[in-house]
What does this fold into?
Amino acid sequence: MLPIDPDADLGRRAWIDCPRCRDSRHCLACRAGRNCGTHWRYLLANSGSVLHVQCPSCAHLWDHETHFGRGGDAA
Ligand SMILES: [Zn+2]
Ligand SMILES: [Zn+2]
It folds into this structure.
């Protein structure tokens, strides 16, 4: 088993390219910007416009800057 963060939750996912394994690079669904059923990341936390995510394929952890509107309600 990969060392997936204990806070990881299948109900909280994010569709972001993994900068380490880039497993979605050749996936047509991902390239089309769809919510692919295979290539998603655990959304562990978010603060402002930064998402703290982990890749379930290679267990890489990183912070992703979304540049989404700050101060907005992240519902
Ligand atoms: Zn990865
Ligand atoms: Zn994909």
Notes: The beta strands are 13-14, 41-47, 50-54, 61-65. The mean pLDDT is 89. Residues 18, 20-21, 23, 55, 57-58, 60 surround zinc ion (ligand 1) (CB under 6 Å).
